[in-house]
């Protein structure tokens, strides 16, 4: 059993049972009862209960909050959110100012509420700062086997040997800090990091994704994970986001290729 149901507060309205996708709740004699039907602790029942009658045992000692939006149908205006999407661009040039831990904590609160496959909630983050150079040395040593295929990897190797040969790091550009996202499910990792990224713009931050860093996991996962002993080695590095305070500001949106959408 995964739920704590307060019989005194429960009014037997049945709303909790109606949103349970595992048929784990039934109403018997005016009170909600748990059936033990494969609950995966999504929390829908807890979140929708009007009388605070249901809690998850898993989080019984943790605080929750009431969503203060007067239960409006639209929590954020379409035009406001679309404006953010339009303004979002990859940032590769940053100020000489590092992000502090308090600011990172604010970012990861967005990931805290991120959905995950089968509600596993197994996404983990690593913020690279002091060990960035050491990590990049390892990455190059792994991905250099493909430098004949990708000129950027070759440039990266040349930069590591002699930093005076390039104005910017070919993989990080002006970035100094990296958010790495690990999970057993790729989609969960990408969604979580996307939430972190979009929240970053509200704090005056920006960044870009690096696929070349992910190649290290694709080529030699076991060796890469030895750099992160605190992470379950069965998880993979699915997102790498270089982040910082933007040094530039883009003035306009640009056209994009048309997205094909079909309805069947």
From TrEMBL:
Gene3D superfamilies, per database record: 3.30.70.20, NADH Oxidase
InterPro entries documented for this protein: 4Fe4S_Fe-S-bd, Nitroreductase, Nitroreductase-like
Positions of the 4Fe-4S ferredoxin-type domain: 1-30
GO molecular function, one term: oxidoreductase activity
Source organism per UniProt: Methanobrevibacter oralis
Name of this protein: Electron transport complex subunit RsxB
Pfam families, sorted: Fer4_10, Nitroreductase
Domain of life from the UniProt record: Archaea
């Amino acid at each position: 059993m995964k739920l704590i149901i307060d019989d005194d507060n429960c009014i037997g309205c049945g709303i909790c049972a109606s949103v349970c996708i595992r048929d784990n709740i039934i109403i018997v004699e005016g009170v909600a009862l748990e059936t033990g039907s494969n609950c995966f602790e999504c929390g829908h029942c807890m979140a929708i209960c009007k009388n605070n009658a249901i809690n998850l045992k898993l989080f019984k000692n943790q605080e929750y909050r009431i969503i203060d939006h007067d239960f409006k149908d639209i929590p954020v205006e379409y035009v406001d959110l679309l404006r953010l999407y339009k303004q979002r661009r990859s940032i590769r040039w940053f100020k000489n100012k590092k992000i502090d831990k308090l600011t990172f904590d604010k970012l990861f609160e967005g990931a805290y509420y991120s959905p995950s496959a089968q509600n596993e909630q197994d996404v983990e983050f690593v913020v690279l700062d002091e060990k960035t150079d050491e990590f990049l040395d390892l990455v190059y040593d792994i991905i250099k086997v493909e430098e004949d295929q990708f000129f950027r990897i070759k440039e990266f190797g040349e930069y590591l040997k002699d930093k005076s040969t390039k104005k910017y790091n070919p993989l990080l550009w002006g970035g100094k800090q990296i958010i790495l996202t690990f999970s057993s499910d790729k989609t969960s990792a990408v969604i979580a990091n996307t939430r972190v990224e979009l929240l970053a713009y509200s704090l005056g931050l920006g960044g870009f994704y690096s696929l070349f860093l992910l190649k290290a996991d694709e080529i030699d996962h076991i060796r890469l994970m030895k750099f992160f002993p605190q992470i379950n080695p069965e998880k993979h590095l699915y997102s790498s986001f270089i982040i910082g305070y933007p040094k530039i500001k883009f003035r306009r949106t640009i056209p994009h290729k048309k997205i094909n959408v079909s309805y069947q």
